[in-house]
Amino acid sequence: MIHPQPSATRALILGLDVLLAALAVVAVVQAPPGRAWAAAVVAAALVAVYVAGRRAVRVHDRAVDTPRGAWWPDTAWIAALVLPWVVLLWLSPAALWLAFPLMILQMHVLGPHRGVIAVAVTTALAVAEGLLVQADADDPWTGFVLGPVLGGAVAVGVVLGIEAFVRESQTRQRTVDELTQVRQHLAQAERDRAVTDERARLARDIHDTLAQSLSAIELLLRAADDAVGTDDERAHDLVGQARGAARDSLAEARRVVQDLTPPDLDRTTLVAALRRVAERQPLDVSVHTAGDVRPLPVPVETALLRIAQSALANVAQHSGADRARLTLTYEQDTVTLDVVDDGRGFDPELATGAPGRGFGLPSVRSRARELGGTVTLETSPGAGTALAVTLPVEEP
User: Fold this and answer.
1) How many angstroms separate the most distant Cα atoms in the chain?
2) Which of 111, 112, 109, 104 is nearest to 155 (CA)?
3) Whole-model pTM?
């Protein structure tokens, strides 16, 4: 990914614009009287070539990681700048100061490889002009050599240092961009997982509440229909139970939407809630406790109630049982719910793998797994079914 020109490099290039123009004026002003007009013309040509090249090459928009040093227009522009500079240097010794901005420009336009060669050529021209044109017999030659050489070394070092800093900044920016993308992907994955978990939770809640209540209502109304004409009083009682179950289902629906505790647990204990669930079943269900009965954390009580509803619905719909027994056993660090019926039983392996089976057992296992609990199922054809769910308890 190519990043936009960093502000440090843009400032360097814009500074070169001002410096080169100012030094061109200085070269004209300090030119010998007889060469002032010629120096002015050459300096104007140099500035014109510079402006034209800036528009064509657009150095200010270039990033340091773009390919540089092509013959056209990069190298052609640099060569076109060096030619009038050499002429201006012959006309005005003050044009020597233009070598420094030219060297910086060469490094940036041609890159760290060809740019160094161009800087070396410019340095050699500056040294040659000093030694052949300006130096007298009595002048030390070291000044005419060391000045351009040190200027070239500084130009190379400045540009390479700035570009190294820019590359490091771009690398960090790329890392930040990648981390931002990874964070966005993780956030999206977390949202997707939360949506999936919420859908699974709602599916369990609907199955364990509304679906089971509707099944109970259907069984109650079927029994009432069978009793009409033969035992009207029993039919009336069954219809009343169905109406009560319908009211509870409506309350359950509202509570599921609001994601609150089940209405059976509202302002009551878990044992009392289990007894209310047992009373709504179309078979004889007894509720028993063992151990020190005590309040449990709301998620644990909610899970146990939902599991009891789902298990009893399976018993009523599939087992053909006449009686079922709920036992809630309180221990120090766990609580266990046992659901035992005297129905026809089934083969658990066949039931697990059979297509079209109910949602009950997977729902029970999912609820227990979410709370770190275990599920034990004992059943066989003709021998009834015993379901035991054990959940860990952290005292509130």
Assistant:
1) 141
2) 104
3) 0.41
Say if residue 138's pLDDT is above 60. no
With bands split at pLDDT 50, 70 and 90, how would you rate the model's confidence at 2? very low
Say which residue the tokens 């800036």 belong to: 54
Q: Which of 207, 327, 219 is nearest to 274 (CA)?
A: 327
Q: How far apart are the first and last CA of the chain?
A: 54
pLDDT (tens digit per residue) in 331-353: 999 999 999 999 998 887 765 54
pLDDT tens by residue, 88-105:
888 888 888 888 888 888
Spatial separation of the C-alpha atoms in residues 236 and 388, rounded to whole Å: 36
